[in-house]
Amino acid sequence: MSVQIFLHGKIVGIQEFLLSPVSEQGEEDAAGERLLAGRSRWVSLLSEVLPRALLAELGLARLLLGSSGGGQFLVVLPLEARPQAEDLIAAAAREIQQLSGGHLQLVSAVTENLGEWNVVRRRLNDAGDRRRGSPLAGQPAATFEPFAGAPTSGPSEYFTKSMALDLQMAETAGWSPETPGRVLPREGKYGWPLGSRPSPEGIAIARHAAMTDDGTAAAGLAALADRAQGRRAWGVLRGDVDNLGIRLRRVQTIEEHVQLSVMYKQFFAGELELVCSLPDYWRKVSVLYSGGDDFAVYGAWDALIPLAREIQRLFHRFSEENLKDFPGPEGKTISMAVSLARDSSSTLASVYEEAGRMLGLAKATGKDCIFVLGHTLEWRQLAAASDLRETILRMAGEIESPRRFLVDLTAFYRKAAAAGRPGTAGRHFEKPWQVQRYLNRALGDTRDKELQRLRAHLTNEILVRGVTHTKLRPGGQVALQWARLLAEV
User: Fold this and answer.
1) SS3 for 383?
2) H or E element in which residue 372 lies
3) pLDDT at position 355, please?
4) CA distance to 345, 383, 435, per residue, from 429 (Å)
5) Are residues 97 and 125 in the same domain?
6) To the nearest 10°, the Cα dihedral for 117, 119, 122, 124?
7) Which of 43-57, 71-85, 113-127 shows the lowest mean pLDDT across its residues?
8) Which of 242, 259, 372, 246 is nearest to 316 (CA)?
9) Which residues on adjacent β-strands are paired with residue 76?
10) Which of 124, 189, 304, 478 has a CA positioned 20 to 30 A from the CA of residue 178?
11) How far apart are CA 326 and CA 350, in angstroms?
12) pLDDT tens digit sequence for 141-195
């Protein structure tokens, strides 16, 4: 029996590549969103197409594909296939580096299928780290050729047309040895079906896009902003599973590793596509990418927050059903962040980057959280903020000057925030009646029992009572900002 080896590939430098500026003058404004979408899809599909192409080119069975997607892949090969496999990976790595303008690096590692999985995984990681630290290893023939960087027209056109436009409706993704670093929609020596649901031969990918009114193309940022209720604005939602790396490092067998990797990838590809296709979202949001443990969506701002809640609900159910036999919370929670465009000059890349920074803040604060409208909330707090938003809007609708009521309530929050800053000791609000005073001022004198009930409910919801003083709930501030955005004309 032939000796088996594991070949692990990983694409590094993804975020730097996605956010790198384009070379063409003015293209970042004209086609920046298509460029970012095309780059995202290319990177997402590379780690799906390359291992399948490797097995097909070597004439090996598809069953030797271990895991793929999320920027990395793992395949099992016979030892005698190693030289040919390394040559193909090296050729793909050179074209990937060229297409990305030097930002991306395909790092591969090989080890024998000997010993327990945790030992094999450690050997693969060590070999990958050595390759990453010495990127010229294994490429002596091409090392001393001058690197021309990305061509001035080819790569951008490939991303904006082939990956962003052609791939949107393509039924297959293909690959050819003549262009080993490219994914080819509808063509190539080999091809694999694309879909949001898993299939034995296909590649699971979320590709939902909100279309223009005539249905001929994906809606642009301005069109998505116009579909929002209240303020005409768009934003980006990013999500990432908490501590999935720790969960994967704890598995004891290669079978468990593959099982977990495939489950997470299929969840994001399938559920994200399904949720975005629901009536509340299908004309308002577009999927930027879905990965092995993360995703990004952009669209009308008012759809992003409820979309985040729905994805978190589905992920919670997914983890309860599929991870109940795995101890510990790692990999069972998800954190997200929503970033809104500041004005009409904001680009998709800049708002996407800002959402990444906010996601980092949410994860630094705690797990299973969301950063939204300037605050980090636990998911249960966001649910309470949603209910409180409805109360605020209902109260505003019952009085003659709803906008004035929202402005007065905002002024109260700003004064309370200023009182809590360093150097202002003794100026914080110590009694709940101070909140009542602001609400009375906003509502005016009223004997309407329903308004009085709503006012009491609002007072209780926006305060956290302590032994000596009270403070404002962050969820109340999010609810107020949320209500103001919805009420804005």
Assistant:
1) helix
2) strand 369-372
3) 96
4) 39, 26, 8
5) yes
6) -70
7) 113-127
8) 242
9) 6
10) 124
11) 38
12) 444 444 444 443 357 889 988 898 899 889 999 999 999 999 999 999 999 999 8
Residue that the structure tokens 């790595």 belong to: 93
Q: Are residues 411 and 272 in the same domain?
A: no
As a 3-state breakdown, the chain gives helix, strand, coil percent values, each rounded to 5, of 50, 20, 30
Question: What angle is formed at CA 163 by the lines to CA 12 and CA 11, rounded to 5 degrees?
Answer: 10
CA–CA distances in Å: residue 247 to residues 12, 117, 199, 243, 263: 21, 14, 25, 7, 13
Q: Name the region of 274 (left: φ>0; alpha: ψ -120 to 50; beta: rest).
A: alpha
Overall number of domains in the chain: 3
Question: Which of 322, 347, 372 is the last residue in one of the domains?
Answer: 372
The per-residue DSSP string of 133-175 comes to H-TTTT-HHHHTSPP--S-SSHHHHIIIIIIIIIHHH-SEEEE
pLDDT for position 144: 43
Q: Which two tokens stand for residue 246?
A: 């720790």
Does residue 202 lie within any of the structural domains?
no
Question: Residue 413: its pLDDT value, please?
Answer: 67
46: which DSSP letter? H
Query: For 109-137, how does the pLDDT look when each residue is reduced to its tens digit (9 = 90+)?
Result: 999 888 888 888 888 888 888 877 655 54
